[in-house]
Design a protein that fits this description.
The complex is a heterodimer of chains A (884) and B (355).
Chain A lengths: L5 E5 L3 H4 L5 H8 L3 E6 L4 H5 L2 E4 L5 H14 L5 H7 L23 E2 L4 E2 L19 H5 L29 H8 L5 H8 L3 H13 L7 E5 L1 H4 L4 H14 L10 E3 L8 H4 L6 E2 L3 E2 L9 H9 L10 H13 L23 H9 L5 E5 L3 H4 L3 H8 L4 E6 L4 H8 L1 H5 L10 E6 L8 E4 L4 E5 L12 H16 L8 H4 L7 E2 L4 E2 L1 H9 L1 E2 L18 E2 L34 E2 L27 E4 L4 E4 L77 E2 L21 E6 L15 H4 L6 E4 L1 H7 L6 E5 L4 E8 L6 E3 L2 E3 L1 E5 L20 E2 L11 E7 L6 H13 L31
Helix pairs in contact in A: 4-8, 4-9, 4-11, 8-9, 15-17
Chain B lengths: L6 H5 L12 H4 L9 E6 L8 H10 L25 E8 L20 H10 L15 H10 L21 E8 L7 H5 L5 E3 L5 E3 L9 H5 L6 E2 L6 E2 L5 H5 L5 H5 L5 E5 H17 L6 E3 L12 E5 L19 H27 L1
Parallel strand pairs in B: 1-10
Antiparallel strand pairs in B: 1-8, 2-3, 4-5, 6-7, 9-10
The chains are: A alpha/beta (884), B alpha+beta (355).
């Protein structure tokens, strides 16, 4: 990041939410980089940026699409890079109909399931290779998540037009798709002044190319939308067109919001993934080990996922040790199976419906931190048992006694059947282990002090819980108990509390030779014959040579700027992914200034400042023989080695469920009619028809005026997420001691709000109150001839701790992105009134009054497809009339 | 290591501030004092994270300053007090940041609210010194805060709203701290010797000696040193005397993620600061300036000095601080002369009477 010549921060308040990482933005600025911040409000990030663009929340694709258009219509792409390293030249099927030509829907839409059949999106000649076929089922299992580390499979044999002139080549399709995304459209949709937009577009393009690079930074301001994945896709398209991937000072930086959130996707706390992005098997689609493995590696596929069978076998071997053999499919039968959507929001609705009996909460405070707080609390109040492990007594442990629903009479403490077990947890300084941060860097932490009282580490808790369950099951002959009894559960322990040895766990994650016990050095050593056991294949090497590589602490001033001897980065201690792209197709650095990894012809190997992200002895001139698969099928100039065609994807023929190209849709709740398409919102967004879940109406539905304002929520530097670690600590609590809402002076005048007075905000879900901060940092925006007012709230507050307040997340309903099932919790519509909210039963009456006025029927869903939009059905050409 | 005992003789009867500006530790009687250490706070890279405030409190065991929402932008600390030894000021300015086209131009904005909301919030402050979250010094302090935050007609430079409404915006942040003056008024007036000059040239209160007389509070030209209401003694930044003595960096500088707070030998810091100002001016920050760096100013230069992006008043700093004991030597001389004259007159009277 420090090497960037321009840095664009969008969908992230990096200075406030990631202040430590932000030092590198400041370092880049010190070296002369220009920093842009695009955000609905002027934040501490904007304060130190060179330029700030106020944007209407939820319209980022319109702005980014206009950058794509600026690049393509002015011929500003890095042509040599784009031709060689992306799929720009690939010809797409004749069956493909773009959303531009169908009022916002792509071809292949199936109205019955509100999802796409992707056959028509495929490359020409491969219409039946979409792999996924129908995406409705993929949506249920958040299948997009598994593409975090690799693209979906496509065939190697594609038709290309190296002149980029073919009307159906990706380059031309992209150009047509974004042609209407002009600076004028940005002004109309986003409220960003055209001149300000052009300042950004010019700086971005002028600081990219052979000699210069630009970096794009986002965080959950992008992801937590019903089109969040497509926001990131648009950013990736820009960075590929400008040649900013795999090069120093380039990249698309996804900032992680807490310590080791990256680690908890690598070794996931997600329902649909196993360690190393191996998908959780599906009960029907993956009946046996081979079916499961082949769905990951696609036997004829290019790239490193070709080794998936070895990664999967080694994982099962790590789980079930001696019991796992090639003959019994490595105990594949022991793995749990997906049967559908088991995401956190579906679970909460299931709890309300009485389908879930017990719940473990670790490092999570959904009563405050998750969307639709009331649904979360009502769900947790309808369990048999709930285990909460936390540092402090958080809202999710006391909702049954002190939550807002107790005041409204919806939860009666004496009758709430949920038995809550609160177990004090050790903090990060009271236990050892690793954190994996944004850069995929694992850093080992030593224990500084013993945890107080009964507080214990997570490792201790799960190890001993597992040990006790296994003791209870010992001698059982029931097949269902085999999975537990066969587990390798033999970590050495130490100390008077029998704390398991965290390094032993890291060693197992790294993997070892099952015969000799030798720790493995690289995932290329993984075998599918039971001779290797690996807890997480992408982490192999972190314990190479029996040394905890994550604990390395050689100071920066004792090594070069890549600092390869500080901690350990996956994969293979590589600090930058796809760094083969930092050299040209012939293997020479694009420029001296941006030299990073290059081909040393004399030595016959790739070399440079980082571990090359390429087979080190494969020359740039290498061309795969006919019929090659796996890594051998990658040519010497295919830098994106985890992609099934070795190319960066400007156009995604499969893998993304809501379109091969990003398209501006309005958020699920918006006061604005989509200015670009008849289709209002993402037609494939995941919605839940449940009486507890209501959505405010958006145009063209009636009564959208009941909720005229846009609100967005995020973090303050002073607090941490749901506040459990900051509202409970005086030196932090006093820095932001009360729940507040930020409004512009114009909205304050309009709604009768006064500085430091009270206001309450109302949605179809809840009404909450907050103190008012009137500030010039928020501005009304002129959007499509209207004035749009945006409000901002911190989401840190709840009813426990030294400082308390209503929870902003109570305002949100549950509508999710179709690819990864993340909730849209960065934008909603609301009304705001001066004064405090009512209390007791009157509070629910107020919300009900709004629902009635807005015509909301509990459990009814807004239409997925906006009435009047023509549907291009799977397997047919366009039917119906366009109405644009 | 110099012997603290050497110091006592030099500090009386003349105020230390009169002893010159060359090296306050030597002037205070330290033999072979180490280089003078200080802070350079570069506000141009401050991101207002308040890590300095928290680190200071954690290391020094400073109690909470209270849980009040002050409404002064993101500042809920209010001021430097006995319970807040670092204080990050947030100044919202409806004025151009000096870069590119104005971001709000073309949007339906009206008059700015920053000044008015600051005034409103300052007025709500409970005027009782170091009570939780409150500015020191009674109701007048609240009024003073109103002034510096830009009440109409009383606003310092850069705080007035522009006639064309608000089309641009700037948000300044500054981590303030005790200045560790070369001529320290607090030190001069301390009757107990609780305040002393360290071998690093910093000024520190010894909590076991302070008797809470409060003379130093009115002697500080910056309004930094302050009495803690519940124990009566004065407290302020020690520049982490315990840490720097052990070769460590003060807690605030250690915690600062952007190197806005830099710690080191004062001479080096001054050089670094001069270069930084030059760079910023080259890059189109004509307002960039240093504050407290000049050994010839009214306090003989500060051990903790700043790079500011606007007039000092905008940040609540006095534009031309003077050591409050500046005139003490002359006063003592005059008092001495007067005493001599009176003695002479009295002696004369007696002598005359004998005749």
């Amino acid at each position: 990041m420090a090497n960037a010549d321009v840095i664009v921060i969008q969908g992230s308040n990096m200075a406030e939410a990631h202040p430590v990482g932000f030092q590198w933005v400041m370092e880049a600025k010190r070296r002369g980089a220009k920093v842009f911040h695009v955000d609905p409000r002027f934040t501490r990030t904007s304060a130190v940026a060179d330029a700030y663009l106020p944007i209407r929340a939820g319209t980022d694709i319109a702005l980014l699409g206009a950058v794509v258009n600026h690049i393509l219509s002015n011929g500003l792409d890095f042509r040599e890079y784009v031709l060689a390293y992306t799929n720009a030249a690939t010809i797409v099927s004749d069956d493909f109909v773009d959303a531009e030509d169908a009022d916002g829907l792509f071809s292949g839409f199936d109205p019955a399931t509100a999802s796409y059949v992707q056959d028509s999106w495929q490359y020409a000649g491969h219409e039946r290779d979409s792999g996924s076929g129908h995406t409705g089922e993929e949506r249920e299992t958040a299948a997009g998540l598994r593409h975090e580390s690799h693209g979906a499979p496509v065939s190697q044999q594609v038709r290309r037009d190296e002149t980029l002139q073919h009307p159906r080549c990706v380059y031309q399709i992209l150009k047509r798709h974004f042609a209407r995304y002009t600076p004028e459209m940005v002004e109309r949709v986003c409220g960003v002044p055209g001149e300000k937009f052009l300042e950004l577009a010019r700086a971005w393009t002028e600081n990219s190319g052979r000699e210069r690079t630009g970096c794009l930074i986002y965080s959950v301001g992008w992801t937590q939308h019903t089109v969040g994945v497509q926001y990131i896709r648009t950013g990736a398209i820009i960075q590929l067109l400008l040649g900013n991937m795999g090069r120093p000072g380039g990249g698309v930086m996804a900032l992680r919001g807490h310590a080791s959130i990256q680690g908890s996707t690598d070794i996931p706390t997600l329902f649909n993934l196993l360690p190393g992005y191996l998908p959780m098997p599906h009960h029907a689609r993956h009946p046996d080990f081979d079916a499961w493995v082949d769905s990951i590696r696609h036997p004829s596929q290019k790239g490193f996922w070709g080794g998936a069978r070895a990664y999967a076998a080694s994982l099962l071997k790590a789980y079930w040790g001696d019991a796992a053999t090639p003959d019994n499919d490595f105990c594949y039968g022991h793995l749990p199976r997906l049967t559908g959507d088991h995401g956190t929001y579906q679970q909460v609705l299931n709890m309300i419906d009485g389908k879930v009996k017990g719940y473990f909460l670790l490092g999570q405070n959904p009563a405050v931190g998750s969307a639709h707080g009331r649904a979360q609390r009502l769900g947790m109040a309808n369990l048999d048992w709930l285990v909460v492990r936390d540092l402090f007594m958080i809202e999710s442990a006391t909702f049954w006694q002190r939550g807002p629903e107790v005041a409204t009479g919806e939860i009666v403490p004496e009758q709430c059947a949920t038995e809550v077990f609160f177990l004090p947890a050790a903090s990060h300084v009271e236990k050892e282990g690793t954190f994996t941060q944004t850069q995929r860097l694992l850093q080992w932490r030593e224990k500084a002090v013993d945890p107080p009282g009964d507080a214990r580490s997570e490792l201790w808790f799960f190890y001993h819980l597992g040990r006790r369950i296994r003791e209870k099951l010992a001698g059982s002959t029931l097949p269902r108990d085999r999975a537990l009894l066969d587990l390798t559960w033999d970590y050495p322990t130490h100390g008077r509390h029998a704390e398991p040895d965290a390094e032993a766990v890291l060693r197992e994650i790294n993997g070892y030779d099952t015969l000799s016990g030798r720790p493995l050095s690289a995932f290329t050593e993984a075998r599918d014959d039971g001779t290797t056991a690996i807890g997480c294949w992408i982490y192999t090497g972190v314990y190479a040579d029996g040394v905890n590589q994550a604990a390395r602490r050689r100071p920066g001033h004792e090594q070069d700027w890549v600092a390869a001897e500080w901690g350990w980065a996956w994969p293979a201690n590589r600090r930058m992914l796809y760094n083969r792209a930092s050299a040209d197709p012939q293997g020479r650095p694009w420029s001296e200034r941006k030299r990073y990894v290059w081909w040393d012809a004399e030595a016959g190997r790739w070399t440079g400042r980082d571990v090359p992200d390429f087979e080190v002895t494969k020359p740039p001139s290498y061309r795969p023989p006919e019929g090659a698969t796996g890594p051998a099928a990658l040519a010497g100039d295919d830098p994106f080695i985890m992609q099934s065609d070795g190319k960066g994807w400007l156009y995604a023929p499969s893998g993304v469920l809501d379109g091969p190209l990003p398209t501006h849709y309005e958020p699920a709740e918006s006061p604005v009619r989509n200015p670009l398409y008849g289709q209002q919102a993402n037609p494939t967004r995941k919605m839940y028809a449940h009486p507890v879940n209501s959505t405010n109406p958006s145009p063209p539905q009636q009564h959208d005026e009941v909720f005229p304002y846009v609100f967005t929520v995020s973090r303050l530097t002073e607090h941490h997420t749901a506040g459990g670690m900051s509202r409970t600590v005086a030196p932090l609590a006093e820095l932001q001691p009360e729940m507040f809402v930020e409004v512009s002076p114009e909205l304050a005048a309009l709604a009768g709000l006064t500085h430091l007075g009270w206001a309450h905000l109302i949605t179809a879900r809840a009404a909450i109150e907050a103190r008012v901060l009137v500030t010039d940092r928020l501005v009304p925006l002129s959007v499509d001839g209207r004035v749009i007012h945006q409000l901002w709230l911190p989401y840190h507050f709840g009813f426990e701790g030294l400082v308390t307040g209503d929870s902003a997340n109570d305002l949100f309903g549950i509508t999710l992105d179709p690819n990864v099932l993340i909730q849209e919790s960065k934008i909603g519509t609301c009304d705001v009134r001066p004064g405090r909210r009512p209390t007791g039963a009157a509070l629910r009456d107020l919300v009900q009054d709004y629902r009635t006025r807005a015509g909301i029927v509990p459990g009814a869903l807004p239409p997925a497809v906006t009435p009047g939009v023509p549907v291009v059905r799977p397997g047919s050409t366009e039917d119906g009339e366009g109405n644009r | 290591m110099a012997d603290p005992g050497d110091r006592a003789a030099a500090s009386a009867p003349l105020p230390v501030s009169a002893a010159g500006t060359a090296d306050p530790a030597t002037a205070a009687g330290w033999v072979d004092a180490p280089p003078r250490m200080g802070f350079f706070t570069d506000t141009s890279v401050c991101i207002g994270c308040k890590a300095c405030e928290v680190a200071c409190k954690e290391w020094n065991g400073v109690p909470t300053a209270g849980l009040d929402l002050l409404g002064m932008s993101y500042d809920n600390t209010g001021a430097l007090t006995a319970n807040s030894w670092r204080h990050v000021a947030f100044v919202e300015q409806p004025r151009p940041g000096g870069h590119g086209p104005a971001p709000f131009a073309g949007n339906p904005t009206g008059d700015p609210a920053s000044a008015a909301s600051a005034a409103r919030s300052a007025g709500t402050t409970n005027p009782t010194g170091t009570e939780p979250g409150v500015l020191p010094g009674g109701p007048s302090a609240a009024a003073r805060m109103t002034e510096f935050l830009g009440m109409p007609a009383a606003g310092p430079p850069g705080r007035t709203g522009s006639a064309e409404g608000r089309s641009d915006f700037r948000w300044l942040m500054m981590s303030d701290v005790c200045k560790h003056c070369t001529r320290a008024g607090c030190l001069d007036v301390c009757p107990t010797g609780a305040l002393f000059r360290t071998e690093f040239g910093t000024v520190v209160v010894q909590e076991d000696i302070c008797n809470g007389c409060g003379y130093c509070v009115s002697a500080c030209p910056y309004g930094v040193i302050d009495r803690r209401v519940d124990d009566g003694r004065v407290w302020k930044c020690t520049l982490c005397y315990d840490r720097i003595g052990a070769g460590l960096t003060p807690a605030c500088a250690q915690a600062c993620p952007t190197e806005s707070i830099q710690y080191g030998p004062l001479d080096e810091l001054r050089e670094r600061a001069a270069a930084r100002v030059a760079t910023l001016r080259e890059r189109g920050e004509p307002q960039a300036r240093l504050y407290g760096h000049d050994p010839d100013d009214g306090v003989g230069g500060d051990g903790a000095f700043f790079l500011l992006l606007d007039e000092p008043e905008v940040y609540g700093l006095p534009p031309d601080p003077q050591v409050t004991t500046r005139d003490l030597p002359a006063m003592w001389r005059r008092a001495g002369l007067a005493a001599l004259a009176m003695t002479a007159a009295a002696v004369g009277a007696f002598l005359g009477g004998r005749r």
